[in-house]
Specification:
- By secondary structure, this protein is α/β, with parallel strands linked by helices.
- It folds into two domains: 4-197, 2-enoyl-CoA Hydratase, Chain A, domain 1, CATH 3.90.226; 201-248.
- It contains twelve helices and ten strands.
- It has helices at residues 28-42, 67-71, 75-82, 84-91, 108-114, 142-150, 152-161, 167-173, 185-197, 201-214, 219-233, 237-248, and strands at 4-9, 12-17, 49-54, 58-60, 97-101, 104-106, 118-122, 126-128, 165-166, 178-180.
- It has a six-stranded mixed sheet, with helices on both faces.
- Helix 1 (28-42) links the parallel strand 2 (12-17) and strand 3.
- The protein is globular, with a radius of gyration of 19 Å.
Length: 257
């Protein structure tokens, strides 16, 4: 698929943004290809986790300025038509997603790096908001995602001053799980994704959904919602296997159902 390379490693699907000449800068075509790739990859029931990364020296350098021609004069309509489906697909994916950040994640690329479930970074990775430098506000979900990951004060600091965030500081602040040598990035990302792929997929994804719902729920509402989900999922094959394995004092063999 143009713009996105699809590959598999066992139960893990690998999606690689493949526009290295522009540091994988965003265009409607690239994000459209990513949305299609997510759909194609997750339509295979054998795929139980995804890894998202970028080809070349960068993860994603943000918006490609030429994309404005495709988006047209109706910026709101264009972004919601061409970009939102991809971010929605990432946030609602039926399997967990590990994001492997190589090199720069700038502007909208920073937003994209935050849209998965777990992120790890190579030592050369940097994160920068960019927007206020050119007189704009953060977009593509940054003002929702970033404060929830690192807190309001740190998010505001990054957005107002546009200072690059190193991989090590990103780990310190909780933006990424770990920092690894650049040459080992994909190996480590695949290792994490394989761990997730061996897990109870439905329960993992339902957990993500519950966390997102909790942002605006009362304690009482969330307490009830957890039990509603629990009641629905407790008879799944993985839940039955998990309880049996616990009683039998053995490792559970989850199948993602």
């Amino acid at each position: 698929m143009a713009g996105v390379i699809q590959d598999k490693d066992g139960a893990v699907g690998i999606l690689t943004l493949n526009e290295p000449e522009s540091l994988n800068a965003m265009t409607p075509d690239l994000l459209g290809a990513l949305a299609e790739a997510i759909d194609e990859m997750t339509s295979d029931p054998a795929v139980r986790a995804l890894v998202l990364t970028g080809a070349g020296r960068g993860f994603c350098s943000g918006q490609n300025l030429k994309a404005a021609e495709i988006l047209g004069k109706d910026l709101i309509g264009g972004v919601m038509k061409f970009y939102w489906p991809t971010f929605k697909a990432l946030r609602e994916c039926r399997v967990p997603i590990v994001v492997a950040v190589n090199g720069v994640a700038a502007g909208g690329g920073f937003s994209l790096a935050m849209a998965g479930d777990i992120a790890i970074a190579g030592r050369a990775a940097t994160f920068i908001q960019v927007f206020s430098r050119i007189g704009l506000v953060p977009d593509l979900g940054s003002t929702w995602l970033l404060p929830r990951l690192i807190g309001r004060q740190r998010a505001l600091e990054l957005m107002l001053f546009n200072e690059p965030l190193t991989a090590e500081r990103a780990k310190e602040w909780g933006l990424v799980r770990e920092v690894v040598d650049d040459a080992a990035l994909m190996q480590e990302a695949l290792s994490l994704a394989q761990r997730l792929a061996r897990g109870p997929t439905r329960a993992l994804v339902a957990t993500r959904m519950l966390l997102e719902d909790s942002e605006f729920a009362t304690y009482a509402d969330q307490f009830r919602r957890e039990i509603e989900i629990q009641a629905d999922i407790r008879q799944s094959k993985d839940a039955l296997e998990g309880r049996a394995a616990f009683v039998e004092k053995r490792k559970a063999n989850f199948i993602g159902q």
